[in-house]
Amino acid sequence: MGEVSIRYVGGPTAVVEICGFRLVTDPTFDAPGDYPIGNRKLVKTAGPAVEADETGAVDAVLLSHDQHPDNLDESGRAYLARVPLVLSTPAAHGRLGDAVTALPNWETYELGERLRITGVPALHGPEGAEALAGEVTGFVLHGDAVPTVYVSGDNASLDHVRAVAERFGPVDVAVLFAGAARTPLFDGAPLTLTSEAAAEAAQILGARHVVPLHFEHWGHFSEGADTLTEAFAAAGLSERLRLLKPGATFTE
């Protein structure tokens, strides 16, 4: 089994090294501040621990969605131009053009001879959220003698997690976008996994390791490191949780 390492940049952004490839999730490298989204704004409270120029040569970006500045900011958009491959939703391809390769749900992109990347469903909020929140995707990295890594993207649906587990479980590493993001958009319903749901997702997936992302550095997150620690302890899963400090790396 090959090695996988995940370096936490901040927010939803991490550098994933697997099977000789370097991948970046949802690139966000802007400074703290207010970021408009429609007639609302999102508030970023901390900048990245790793600057864009410090990620090294990257083979692909795994972009869960392009329509929200906490998942793709201005620096992130510029970053896409320097990466040979960006995998994301068909909607992102429609907006960003040939800079993005669409990866619909359950379709697979082969990166080299060993690593496969499959797009998987994600729902950015409660049932029916897609009409307002837009299309979002997750990813599964897999292959022969390759660790199986699930990257949830901004997903709040455990039903989608179950669908991933049915096809790919158990997984070696689950990269879960947590934080229970809440805005007025859906009367405060969580737009991403709550801490309790993240622990349940870990059980569903049979994940040996869980690396949370997107649970801090933005004002609309309602749960963080403390609630993740409590939820995983309550579920008897503390030994699976890999909470990283910004800039730190997990290696399996």
From TrEMBL:
Q: Where is the Metallo-beta-lactamase domain?
A: 22-215
Keywords noted in UniProt: Hydrolase
Task: Write out the coiled-coil annotation as residue ranges.
Answer: none
Give the Gene3D superfamilies listed for this entry.
Answer: Ribonuclease Z/Hydroxyacylglutathione hydrolase-like (3.60.15.10)
List, alphabetically, the InterPro entries matched: Metallo-B-lactamas, RibonucZ/Hydroxyglut_hydro, UPF0173_UPF0282_UlaG_hydrolase
Q: Which residues span the membrane?
A: none
What name goes with this protein?
MBL fold metallo-hydrolase
- Protein's organism: Streptomyces crystallinus
